[in-house]
Amino acid sequence: MNETMHMEMTVNGRVRSLDVAVNHTLLDVLRDDIGLTGTKECCVVGECGACTVLVDGIPMNSCLMLGIEADGAEVLTVEGLAEGGHLNRMQEAFLDTGAAQCGFCIPGQLMSATALLQRNPHPTVADINEALAGNLCRCAGYQQISAAILASVQGAAP
Amino acid sequence: MNDTNGVGARAHRLGGADRVTGHQRYVADIPMAETLHAKLVTVDCAHARILSIDTSAAERVPGVAFVMTAADLPQPMPRFGPEYQDRPVLADGEVKYHGEPVAAVAAETKDAAEEAATLVKVEYEPLPAIFTIAAALYPSAELVQDPSIRRPGPHIETNVLREYRFGWGDVEEMHADVVVEHTYTWPMQTHFAIEPHGFMAAPDGDGIAAWSSIQHPYQLQKTLAKVLGMPMSKVRVFAPDPGGAFGGKQHPKLEPLVAFMALRADRPVRLILTLEEAFQAVRRAGTEIRARMGFKSDGTLVFQDYVNHFLTGAYADTGDRITAKASFLTAGPYRTPAVRIVARSVLSHTTPTHPYRGFGIPQVTWARESCLDEGAIALGIDRLEIRLRNLVKYGEEHVPGDTPADGNWEQTVRKAAEEIRWGTPLPPGQGRGIAIGVKSGPTTGLSYSTVRFLADGSVLVFSGTSDMGQGARTIFAQIAAEELGVPLDRVAMVMGDTSVVPYDQQTSASRSSVLMGNAVLNACRDIQRKIKAMASHLHDIDESEIVVDRGVVHLPDRDLPIVDVLKAGLGRMGGELVGNGESRKQADPDHPLGGTALFFEFNCTACDVAVDPDTGETTVLRHVTVGDVGFALNPMQVTGQDEGAAVMGLGHALMEHLILDDEGRTRNLGAIDYRIPTSLDLPLELHSFIVENADGPGPYGVKGISEGSLLCTAPAVAAAVRDATGVVIRDLPLSPERVWRAMQEQP
Amino acid sequence: MQSFSYVRPTTVEEAIALLEEHGEGARLLAGGTDLVIELRNRWRKPKIVVDLKRIEELRPSIRQEDARLVITAGTVMADLAADERVRKHFPALVEAADVVGSIQIRNRATLAGNICNGSPAADTAPPLLVYGAEIVVAGKKGRRRVPVDEFIVGPGKVDLGPAELVTAIELPMPTPPIAAAYTRMTRRRGTDLASITLCCGVDANGTTRLAYGSVGPRALLVVDDTGVLADPAASDEDKAPTLARMFAAASPSPKSMRAGPEYRVAMLPVLGARALHTAIERLARSS
């Protein structure tokens, strides 16, 4: 029987109060307990970044965090990016450049990119490639992804 | 092209919005009540005799429903496979490759399944494993497959699954001024799609429903029906978009096991592989190819002579087909008077070889293009020049009796040469390479599509193709939008359900733009014929005076949008028009491959590299890939696929290989030690180009794409490394250590 | 994932008491980038995981105390790389911290955890050795300071008793200042585990400190005070024999998947010379 603990965290702006098994990762909790399956599971060793979420605004691999460690934190997942049901500027840009091919890495890419723009509003392509080096894409749309991020910078030409 | 976002438009990907919002449901995301979680049990051995399996401790874990072993399956063990039905549902008395499932746990929670899997006690006797070509071909080598399960043939008492002899002319009779002979190897690699394979099955009345990240839902339907002893009409396969496949999700692997588990449990059962398990489930054929080329002193090819060994796995899977289809084209798009190819698919105690983007062509291309370069250097002829001199022209056969060159391939090569600025000088420590790749599309095929033109002018298109990222869903919608004159956002696609969508043989060999594209086009033409009849009736004009084309009904005195005719024709009662389309590539039983090539994917890749003389690290400075695509139905998607394939090809060339230990077990399972390119590993400049001459057999002159840009990446990079350093490397990957070692060994 | 209990003490003393109670059955959790993988793979089967992140004293912080920089155990690689004082005085540590995995990893992985994990390939070990870091260890009997060269023992082994934990890592401001550079060898340009880690520092006295790892059971520190290596006027040829001797103790494993022993041995002087060049340049720029 797994030990459980009560926790509260805000996920995409909504307070979630739940009992989690202490041996479940934040990835497990988001996907299985809360039902937010947008965050993906792939390598589970912190290499591929498919599980990237923002915890208090900072990008982290949710596969390497126990869910309970996010107690009291604000978590942002891909499901929290759309604004009032509309795709945000970055999401639109990803569609405009064709950055999402199979789509499996895309939630992680979007989260890392969102965090990047928050700390560096005008990144270069080199900055982007460095910031997203922990988000593997096997369809390897890296160039479309960086083009999308550049296009979603505030003030970029449409 | 009309303004509906039809063909040729850089239309937003259908399904794109779901992908950027996290709403796209892959197999692991599908909500299903009452599901049992499955976990595989394997042994850490490449080859072993199973002595006993004790499931008692595992069964005592709370939440465990049961543990399935071979003893629980029908006797004799059901076997399946795309060409040879040799793969057992669970290891049958013997583990034949590292990671072959021996048992499977079904439990209420993932934790319980995982816990129980560690408690299943498998007693086994390790046996010697064969995992190299040399070991497999050794005269007294143990047989990987018992002759009793082999098809009768001359090699039944060996580990050669099959031998092929292709070619023409008589190599022995040819006189060449210069002969070059070398052996080139390509390691085993794995696909590493970011979505590990997922499978789910649930009883469905007296039949079964199955979900899989499979590229060929109809092949899966057929396999499950056979293995379970059900009529196909009672087997329903749902095929959610795979999160990347690259060939690794083509044929059934664990679905039969999961189906048996679901039937036993009378509940849904879901199995999602870990990344490590995915690596053990699918891999690419490793190859050893001895290439021998004879040239006249002016660089004209006189003969090409190959012995190709493909290391396939413990079960045939697709390994044999890959050997045949790739070997058939080893000599490439060059005019060669005499060619001899002896190809063997070789069994081993390794993961069964599964299709992998390129289908063996990268491996044969590696040998051919590298050998061609060595010939050019021996002759003192420019490496671009030697290729142009021997390249076949449009309409010329490069394999006698097969489809002739279906493109102006010289145009593609010259474009690549121009973009890499071939002939301009490079500073010391830098080098330039160029290579050519050609692959045949499918040799047989069958696709059906249904299109329903609804009363309000919106459209439903039914297509059984798998959209695994290449954008199939979008291009078929674009074709319907184009032909029926409907804005793209009023076209909805129905895919991935064998009970609802008509048959599509498979999604592979870059066939879908052509085969399913033509099926969709034909379904639209079917509707256009009905529209013509409607218009004739409505306007009292003879059908022979009406032309319906690309969204427009052309009457003698005016043009009408199709949608208007539809609405007028359906009238107050409403209804819809249904169109059916079929597209078939006929088999040719006399052809060594069972059929000629439907089209070719032709690519020229060129690159500039810098090599660190002290460490062997290679930096790709500029990478150019050019493909002869016929027509780009969606240019944005073509770019995505071409650049993606180029980067994957660079991964294959520079860093990817499965590493086995002395006993044949895979050491680098998982993401830490199997390296693929990250955003920091991109060439400093990567450019893709297409040649569009509308000369393909698909709609609007389309040919297939998606494999072209990785067919000849490795030889282009190795050629550039050679150009920079003088070292010739004939084994991949070109890791810094290997390049350094080659530089050390250079006299 | 296997089952375990989870507890989050709020003081160092509480944590030590838990370690004493559970001994080998307890594992400390800071960033989790090593531990969570260990737990999932069942390499260890602890009864209890002790989360250190609620202990105020260990919360991420870098502060200057007298002539040293005190880095708390909870400080992560990203914090180190962003800190002005670390960037100014200990740039080689920033260079190492910047390559410990991707940004997602660097936002979680602690400096203390990287050292305590005891991997011979830990990126931060060579800079800490060159800069003469000291590890502050808390136990039942109080605190002790251990020079990092003594703290690192072998693969997976550090000088930590069963009921002890690291509370901080201290970097003394070196006098004279040390100008150092960090470099490594990897299989690809993207994030990777290193097959060689190397840090080289020089100072105005002509002392060269060279630390390197992933070529033996632990990272090694070797010092040259002949002045030959640090001499900006000496040629690479003049330095080569001295440099070669610095690597005499390298013993790379023949079984590594990442790189063969011959290559590693050959790359040590290559990387060493490059890091030495950069260190000398940095020293010249700073004076």
Features:
heterotrimer, A: 158 residues, alpha+beta, Ubiquitin-like (UB roll), 5-stranded mixed sheet, globular, C: alpha+beta, Enolase-like, domain 1, 5-stranded antiparallel sheet, 4-stranded antiparallel sheet
Structural write-up:
The complex is a heterotrimer of chains A (158), B (747) and C (287). Chain A is an alpha+beta fold and 158 residues long. Chain A has helices at residues 26-33, 89-96, 106-119, 125-131, 142-151; strands at residues 4-11, 14-21, 52-55, 58-61, 74-76. Chain A starts with a strand and ends in a 7-residue tail after the last helix. Chain B is globular. Chain C has 287 residues and is α+β, with helices and mostly antiparallel strands. A five-stranded antiparallel β-sheet of chain C has the order 4-5-10-6-7. In chain C, strands 11-12-13-14 form a four-stranded antiparallel β-sheet. In chain C, helix 10 (236-246) packs across helix 11 (261-286). Chain C starts with a strand and ends with a helix. Chains in contact: A-B, A-C, B-C. The interface between A and B is large, with 61 and 61 residues.
| Shape designation of chain B | globular
Q: Report the structural category of chain A.
A: alpha+beta
Biggest beta sheet summary of chain A: 5 strands, mixed
Order of helices and strands of chain A: EEHEEEHHHH
Let me know the number of strands of chain A: 5
Helix content of chain A: 25-40%
Oligomer: heterotrimer
Largest sheet, strands/sense/barrel of chain B: 7 strands, mixed
Estimated helix fraction of chain B: 25-40%
Number of domains of chain A: 2
Tell me the overall shape of chain A.
Answer: globular
